[in-house]
Amino acid sequence: MDQGVTAERHGALLVVGDVVTDVVARHRGPLAAGTDTAAVIRTLPGGAGANVACWAAHAGCADVRLLGRVGADTAAWHERELVAAGVRPRLVVDPQAATGTVICLVDTGAAAERTFLTDSGASLRLDPADWSDTLLDGVARLHLSGYLLFTEPSRALVRRAMAAARARGVPVSLDPASAGFLVELGVDRFTAFAEGLDVLLPSRDEVCLLTGVVDPVEAAARLSRLVPLVVAKAGADGALVARSGAVPVRVPAVPAAPRDTTGAGDAFTGAFLAALLAGAAPEEAAARGCRAGAEAVERVGARPPQPGPSQAGRVD
């Protein structure tokens, strides 16, 4: 299905992934153990899958759809936020689990580095019963959040979705999502899933972890022998575009003054996929991804600005 990487395709982008509530705490300097650390705290919509969908819509993709699972506690709020961002959500309401929550600790120093505390909640309880092949009607690309690989029910859904996409000739992309979770999953188990992908969008740390190679350039080239197109996101160093084992093309970053790096990789992925759908070559799509990543780090939270009044920061 490599032809789907470069050829212009018309249709929707379907994202399957996590929808969570982000509690973003911005502090300066190290956390003071055993006492108080002053911080500015906001509650915002998040989740890697949902973020990618929102940034794809923000980048101009006219038809972005999202399959995710949430708890009844915040289902209405998340649906409103996604619709306001231009996404068509299909949210399964979990009768037992609350919506996933991520506490994002953001150091407001120069690098705006962040640390995540994650309670996946309902987000990783997607299972094959939540999938229908009709979800692919009118879809030109399927994108999967790598977080789905970290529980067996959602892994089973991924297998079913990938098989359905292959049967229809729909290209499939995946973002590995977390180097820490990849270690728990195991590289061999991940690469078994990767063999069915058309596009892989790892971070610099993830591409090195998946290959055991320290140099990200060599690692991206090696990984692209498994997946036809590998785009390794490297933050302030831009991105590497590797195709079929060839020497990767380096795409420069866009300068930015970071306030919060949460969701920068999701912004890149969303804009990249929107560009591919519009017919852009992978290198141009990566350049658009870098621009979106720069826009993302200059904002607090993981989502793009909404075209109208937002309910962000409120959970009803």
What structural class do the secondary elements suggest? alpha/beta
What profile does the largest beta sheet have? Answer: 9 strands, mixed
Q: What sort of overall outline do the alpha carbons produce when their principal axes are compared? A: globular
In CATH, what is the class?
A: Alpha Beta
CATH superfamily: Ribokinase
CATH architecture: 3-Layer(aba) Sandwich
Q: Percentage of helical residues?
A: 25-40%
- Rg result: 18 Å
Strand proportion? 15-25%
Order of helices and strands: HEEEHEHEEEEHEHHEHHEEEHH
Number of helices: 10
Instruction: Give the uncertain stretches in residue-range form.
Output: 1-8, 309-316
Give structural attributes:
single chain; UDP-N-acetylmuramoyl-L-alanine:D-glutamate ligase; 4-stranded mixed β-sheet; disordered N terminus; alpha/beta; 33% helix; disordered C terminus; 9-stranded mixed β-sheet; 316 residues
Strand and helix layout:
Layout (H helix, E strand, L loop, with lengths): L2 H4 L5 E5 L3 E8 L12 E7 L1 H11 L5 E8 L3 H10 L2 E8 L5 E8 L6 E6 L19 E7 L6 H17 L3 E4 L3 H7 L1 H8 L4 E2 L3 H8 L4 H8 L5 E5 L5 E5 L5 E3 L12 H14 L4 H16 L19
Parallel strand pairs: 1-4, 1-8, 2-6, 4-5, 8-9, 9-10, 10-11
Antiparallel strand pairs: 2-3, 6-7, 11-12, 12-13
Please characterize this protein's 3D structure.
The chain has 316 residues and is an alpha/beta fold. It is globular. The strands form 2 sheets. The protein has a 9-stranded mixed beta sheet with strand order 5-4-1-8-9-10-11-12-13, with helices on both faces. β11 and β12 form a beta hairpin. The longest helix has 17 residues, at 152-168. Helix content is 33%, strand content 24%.
